Fold these 4 entries.
Entry 1:
Amino acid sequence: MTLIKILLAIFLPPVAAFMQVGLSAHFWINILLTLCFGIPGVIHALWLVLSKKS
């Protein structure tokens, strides 16, 4: 499952963030980062997936 989340974090960062943390502040931060800057959204999603174990 972690591999799927990593791939989603690269291609669809908000989806990976949602799967990891739900509708929390991290999800909305990731939406903002992805829409405004792109690559920071990917980095943030990867950080969420790799640092938080659910």
Entry 2:
Amino acid sequence: MSDLQMLDRDEQSASAEFRWGAMTSRAEVRVTPLGILAIGGMLSAVLLSTAVVVWASTSIGRARAARRS
């Protein structure tokens, strides 16, 4: 059996429960190591794309400030 198939079978799990007054919330997740890798890749893509959007939205302001100087 290859290492990739072994990674696919080992599950990690986590649960959390929050209580605030009368409100109670519970969350549970199970994921394989390959799933954790996929989640990390998606999170990296979101963070990198957010940086590009912020840079693009502020580049107009930087260009105006440079022309005033």
Entry 3:
Amino acid sequence: MAQKKIVGYLPNDTPPLGRMLVLGFQHVLAMFPATILVALLVGFDVGTVLAVSGLATITALILSKQIAGKFIPLYYGSSFSYIAATLAITNAEFGVYAQDKVALAQVGIVATGVVNILVGLIVRRAGGRKFIDKFLPPIITGSVAAVIGIALSAAALNMAAANWLVAFITLLATIIFSVYLQGKGFLGLIPVLLGALVGILASALFGLVDLSPVGAAAWFALPKITFPAFTSPKAWESVAAIAIIAIATIPESTAHLYQISLYVDNLATNMGKKKYNLRELIGLNLILDGLGDMINGMFGGVAGTNYGENNSLMVITRNYSGPTLITAGIMAIMLGFIGKLSAAVGVIPIAVSGGLAIYFFGLIGMQGVALIQAEKVNLYDPRQLAIGATILVLGIGGHIGLGGNIPLPIPGVFPDGLPAIAFAAVAGIVLNLVFMVFKTPEGAELKVVDLED
């Protein structure tokens, strides 16, 4: 019996041009809602944020191929983890561009990039994955990823609340396409795009699609490029407020790389090809993540990390092609300069984005669970349970139940309290260090047994 052909693209694969354009646009569709939402929330220019995210992504991908000989297939966009810290600097109203405050926040974003690069260099010099696994073992990276996905659930539901019927039509269509079109050729690679189209058609039937912004938009629009206010007397305040959030995004970025490495190698094995072992590039990944933040900080983009939404898209579609992500980066830059194109994507009803976000954010959380499972973390070990439980409750409870901050304010830096996800990550790291320094009693760890034997 002939073996069934596996349809998918590995990181160094280049799809035909027509397919690559469609697949690249699907990546843009995945990153667009969160990217513009973060920009609007913290007072940054949407066009600039889109364009600079594309530049950061293209730069990171090209460098990964040149340095490692293989693409690290990640899209570098904004991060929800930085919203509270950035707002502490900009004090922005929703959708209001605050140029002077943006320039001040950019100082902290550049500093975040420096922190990531320094950690990446240390990791590379100290032994790569083996070194970082001591301080960021799978129970931390997997739990942080799960926290991020679940913590974003409220944002997904808020978007879906614009029209629950449209959101659930979009969600159901996307799930059906992603499950039942697997292995069906090119259609199996674009379930998210197909699901979005179904959602847009449903929205049009309910009169929710307004094309007037496309007609009103100019064909050409210059992004509002701003440069960091390094000489501001409040520059160090910006550094202290924003750069510390790297404590959360370093585990997040590590988790994303480990997740995508797991799925890429699984696809490679099923296709009978050599594994990529992307997880061994953790040091380089952190350096590229930091470089992305430095690019964002220098030209007016928001702080971020590699995108879990695009990771989810790649897992759904089995398309891990680096050239496709470069295509998406080029499209993002075009969105920043072509007003009508940006407006066309912008008229996608928020309920459609909400339906997609329910799926994407849930997948981010499930990928964290998959990472813990794949690494065979012993959840009968009280140390592992303590670390994971602490991260989950502090991160999810703090982000959803307490509005994003643990109520432990630091005047002048975190007046509203400590960012919950960052605090949860730090708590997990500290607990892990305690267990490394103070050894637990012999026999404290229970072995996993098969209860049916």
Entry 4:
Amino acid sequence: MTEVSFYLLSSDLLLERYLFACKLIEKAYRNGQFCYILTDNDEQSQLLDDLLWTFRAGSFIPHEIYTGQAPSIDKVILIGSINAPMHSQELLFNLSSKYPENISKTKRILEILDTCEVTKVAARSRYRQYQQAGLNVKTHNIE
């Protein structure tokens, strides 16, 4: 069954949300997990692509923006605003404002939230959708 984890940050800064996501993505990569990062649009995908190169000195996380074409290498973190390819659905970072589609093969969904009211309203809706789908939902307060 899919497990959903909501990480609630105490900051209202969008950059803090993305930096926290980068840290979790790096941890997943070091544990041999290749994930998909779902975004709302190409601009957000590009921002995350840039941050994954620069958020920590010496960090290397192979990643690329997914446009529907096969990735250039097999073991890579994919970022995109379209549905994840079948081989990248096991771990999903949902940084978008929408409920992810086609999550039947997804083992874990990570939602990272800041204190911005717009972000919280969309997250509450997704939280209810996850619960209605019978998924195991957990929350973690991050100080």
